[in-house]
UniProtKB/TrEMBL annotation, chain A:
UniProt-recorded name of the protein: Cobalamin ABC transporter ATP-binding protein
Domain of life: Bacteria
Source species of the chain: Massilia psychrophila
Molecular function GO terms recorded: ATP binding; ATP hydrolysis activity
Keywords: ATP-binding, Cell membrane, Membrane, Nucleotide-binding, Translocase, Transport
Function: Part of the ABC transporter complex HmuTUV involved in hemin import. Responsible for energy coupling to the transport system.
UniProt-listed Pfam families: ABC_tran (PF00005)
Length: 257, 323
C-alpha cells in the first residue's frame, strides 16, 4: 500500500526521524505513538504528500508519492488534520460533501452517489441528526466526529488520521476505534493514526510505530511493540504493564518521591 | 434564486432609467430605449435615458466587481471580515489618482494613475507574500503585509490632502468617497468581470474546499497554490477596475457578500453568481438614490453605500450572534 524507504524527517536542523524503512499493507491499522514534538504529525503530513521529506522516498501503490497528480492522490488517501479552524458557517452536510470533491471536480453539483456516501458516513459517526447544523455551533466532540465522517465519505484505501480520539468521550472513542478496525478487516483499508492512549491503541491498531523524536523508531505488531520496557524508553516515563484478563493495561508509574 | 436576482437586477436598471429630476413614464420607455440604442437621442426622453442607463450600467459593473472581489478575497484570506480594500489595492489606486488630481492632469490620466497605483501595490504585495500564496502557509502574513501597505499608502494620501490647494480638495475627496457622476462606460471592466466570474464559477467547488480546510484542501486534490494565486489576481483585477472607474466606494465589497451568505449560506457555487448580481443591483439602486434624494444636488454614491451599509451590517452581525 504505502512504504517508506530511508525516509528522513527534520524540523529545521533537528533530526526527527532517521532512515525509516517501513510499510503498511491493506488490512493493517497502524498507530503512531511518541512524545510531544517527536514528529508524529510531520510524519503523517509527509505520508499524505502535504510536505516533502528531508530525504528518502515514499511509494504509494508502486508509484512515488510525489509523482501522483493531486486529484488522483485524493482518491487514494484521506487525511484528517489535528485541528480545525472554521471561518465560515457551512452546514455539516456541506463539509462532508466537500470531501467528495476528488470524485466530482468537473461537475458543478454533487450527485446522488455523493449524497449517499455522505449520509452513510454521518450515520456511521452517529452525527446524521446534525446534518443541517452550522458547523461553528457544534461541540468539540461533535466537530471531531463530523471531521472523521468527512474522511470516511472520501472513501479511500488509505486513511491518515491525526489524533482521531481527540475530544471524544469514552463511548465514542471506542466506537470510532471499532469502526476503524472493521474498515481494515472487512474492506482491507489501511489506517495510519496518531494516538496518545496506548491502551486505546490496542483496540484499533494491529501495528504500532514508536517515534523517539531524535531519529530512533521502532515498528512492529502490537504484541511486539507494546512492551513496558520499550514504551518506557520511547515515552520518557516509566510504564508498567498490568495483566487484565487476556490483555495488558499500561499505566504510568508514579514519580518516585 | 439566481434567476430571481437576475430579474431584480434588470428591474433595478429600468428603475434607474425612469427615476430622476425628470421622470420618464414607463409607457414611453420602449420608444426612448429604441431611440437611444440607434444612437440618435432626438427626444428629451431618449437623451435622458441614454445618460441614466450609461450611468446605471457603470454602477452595475462596479458594484458587481466589488462584491465578487469581496467574495474572492474573503475566501482567499479565510476571513469573512475581509473586503476588496483590505490588502491596500484601493489605497494604491488612491495615491495614483490623488497625485494626478493634485497636479491637475487630464481625466484619463487620473484613471490611468489610479490603475497604475493599484497594479503597483498588487505586484509589491504579491512579491512580498509570494511564499504564502504559493501553498501551505496560513494567510496571516499576507493580510498583515497588505494592511501595512494600505496604511502606508493612506499616509501618502493624507499628506497630499493636507498640501492640496483649497480648489482641488473637493474633487480629491469625492474621488476618495467614490463617485459615479461622469464615470465613463468602458468595455474593460465588463471583460474583467466576465473573465473573473467565469474563473470563480469554474473553481467554485474548490473555493468551498479552501474556505473550509485552508492548506488541508490539498489532501482533497485542490491545487492550493495555483488557486490562491488565481484568487489574488482576480480580486486584484476586479478591485483595480472598480476603483479606476468610480473611486473607492466603500462597503459594497463587504456587506453584499455578507448579505448573500446570510440569505443563501456560504456555498460558493451559489454565492459567486448571487453576490455578483446583488452587488450590481445594490450599487445601481444606491446611485439612483444618491442622485435623486437631494436633487438637483448629487451626492457621491460612496456616502449612500456607507450610510446604508453600516446599519445593515450591524443588524446582520447581531442577527448572526443570536443562536
Amino acid at each position: 500500500m504505502i512504504s517508506a524507504h530511508d525516509l528522513t524527517l527534520k524540523a529545521g536542523s533537528r533530526l526527527l526521524l532517521d532512515k525509516l524503512n517501513w510499510q503498511a499493507e491493506p488490512g493493517q491499522s497502524w498507530c503512531v505513538i511518541g512524545r510531544n514534538g517527536a514528529g508524529k504529525t510531520t510524519l503523517l503530513r509527509t505520508l499524505a504528500g502535504l510536505c516533502p521529506p528531508s530525504a528518502g522516498q515514499l511509494v504509494l501503490h508502486g508509484r512515488a508519492l510525489d509523482q501522483w497528480p493531486l486529484p488522483a492522490l485524493a482518491r487514494q488517501r484521506a487525511f484528517m488534520a489535528q485541528a480545525r479552524n472554521d471561518a465560515f458557517g457551512y452546514r455539516v452536510i456541506e463539509t462532508v460533501l466537500a470531501a467528495r470533491h476528488p470524485y466530482a471536480s468537473t461537475r458543478y453539483w454533487e450527485d446522488d452517489i455523493d449524497h449517499r456516501h455522505c449520509v452513510a458516513a454521518l450515520q456511521a459517526m452517529q452525527v446524521d441528526e446534525l446534518a443541517d447544523r452550522d458547523i461553528r455551533t457544534l461541540s468539540g466532540g461533535e466537530r471531531q466526529r463530523v471531521a472523521i465522517a468527512a474522511v470516511l465519505a472520501q472513501d479511500t484505501p488509505l486513511i491518515l488520521l491525526d489524533e482521531p480520539a481527540n475530544a471524544l468521550d469514552v463511548g465514542h472513542q471506542m466506537s470510532v476505534m471499532r469502526l476503524l478496525a472493521r474498515l481494515c478487516r472487512e474492506q482491507a483499508k489501511t489506517v495510519v493514526m496518531i494516538g496518545h492512549d496506548v491502551n486505546l491503541a490496542q483496540h484499533a491498531a494491529s501495528h504500532v510505530l514508536l517515534l523517539k523524536g531524535d531519529g530512533r523508531w521502532t515498528a512492529g505488531s502490537v504484541a511486539e511493540v507494546l512492551q513496558a520496557p520499550l514504551l518506557s524508553q520511547y515515552l520518557g516515563h516509566p510504564i508498567e504493564a498490568i495483566r487484565h484478563g487476556s490483555r495488558h493495561i499500561f499505566v504510568p508509574q508514579e514519580a518516585s518521591p | 434564486m439566481v434567476a430571481a436576482l437576475f430579474t431584480i437586477a434588470c428591474a433595478s436598471l429600468v428603475l434607474a432609467g425612469t427615476i430622476g429630476s425628470v421622470a420618464i413614464p414607463l409607457a414611453d420607455l420602449p420608444a426612448a430605449l429604441f431611440d437611444a440604442l440607434r444612437g440618435q437621442g432626438t427626444t428629451l426622453a431618449a437623451t435622458l435615458l441614454e445618460l441614466r442607463l450609461t450611468r446605471a450600467l457603470v454602477a452595475f459593473v462596479t458594484g458587481a466587481a466589488l462584491a465578487l472581489a469581496g467574495v474572492l478575497m474573503q475566501a482567499l484570506l479565510r476571513n469573512p471580515l475581509a473586503d476588496p480594500y483590505v490588502l491596500g489595492i484601493s489605497a494604491g489606486a488612491s495615491v495614483g489618482a490623488l497625485a494626478a488630481l493634485l497636479f491637475m492632469w487630464a481625466a484619463w490620466i487620473v484613471d490611468g494613475a489610479a490603475f497604475a497605483g493599484a497594479a503597483a501595490i498588487s505586484l509589491l504585495l504579491y512579491w512580498l507574500a509570494r511564499r504564502e500564496l504559493r501553498a501551505d502557509g496560513g494567510a496571516t502574513s499576507l493580510l498583515l503585509t497588505g494592511v501595512i501597505l494600505s496604511s502606508g499608502c493612506m499616509a501618502l494620501v493624507t499628506l497630499m490632502l493636507s498640501v492640496a490647494p483649497e480648489g482641488r480638495l473637493r474633487g480629491m475627496i469625492f474621488w476618495m468617497i467614490g463617485d459615479l457622476s461622469g464615470a465613463p462606460l468602458r468595455v474593460l471592466p465588463w471583460v474583467v468581470l466576465g473573465v473573473t466570474l467565469l474563473y470563480a464559477a469554474r473553481n467554485a467547488r474548490a473555493l468551498n474546499v479552501i474556505a473550509m480546510h485552508a492548506d488541508g484542501a490539498a489532501s482533497l486534490g485542490v491545487q492550493v497554490g495555483a488557486l490562491r494565486k488565481g484568487l489574488y489576481v482576480c480580486s486584484g483585477l476586479l478591485t483595480a477596475s472598480a476603483v479606476t472607474t468610480a473611486g473607492s466606494i466603500g462597503f459594497v465589497g463587504l456587506i453584499v457578500p455578507h448579505a448573500c451568505r446570510f440569505a443563501l449560506g456560504p456555498d460558493h457555487r451559489l454565492l459567486v453568481p448571487a453576490a455578483t448580481l446583488a452587488g450590481g443591483t445594490f450599487l445601481v439602486l444606491a446611485d439612483t438614490l444618491a442622485r435623486t434624494i437631494a436633487a438637483p444636488q448629487q451626492l457621491p454614491v460612496g456616502v449612500v453605500t456607507a450610510l446604508l451599509g453600516a446599519p445593515v451590517f450591524l443588524f446582520q452581525l447581531h442577527q448572526l450572534r443570536r443562536p
